[in-house]
Specification:
194 residues
Length: 194
Amino acid sequence: MVARPRKWYEVAEKVVDSVEEERKAEMTPAQSALLDKYRHLLRRGFRGAYVHGLDTKGRMIVPASFRQALGDRFYICMTPDFKAIAIYPQHEWELYYCSLLELAEKDMRMERVINLFSKYTYDDCECDAQGRVLLPQKLRVRFLQDAKDVEVSGAGTHIRVMRNEDAQSEEEAFEAEIPDVLAFEAEIAARKNN
């Protein structure tokens, strides 16, 4: 039997594991637990922002750096805040959907949220040979209107797709709300320690 050659990211994960184990010795137990909890996002999370055009059929190129983490089959739906299009790897979508179901057990009104989320969820999606994905028309109409160019950005567990104008407005609102990020982080850290 011939051994299957390991893919580059499998080799990289082994290297990362050995480095992380050395660094974990220097961490507090809380930092180590946090690293363990979010390790999968550190390795394969979605980061970065790109501008891509939509063709006349509503297809968009998925950035090459996102395709490996996305996988062959994925979900296209709304972002958790219902303000943009989200593209989730199957595993991450399932985790998010289960968290919604758990909330529905605590408050029946969540069923309305789940129903709307499900209405705008498309499963078994895939990229074509050119790395393009067809964004469902219902989502395009709701979130992209007649946009020709969109911002495709990483959001940790998923990819966000929104009109360039909306992305710019979102950044301006962020800067107005949190003008000093370091002060904001320090405020939260102080609250957590009290």
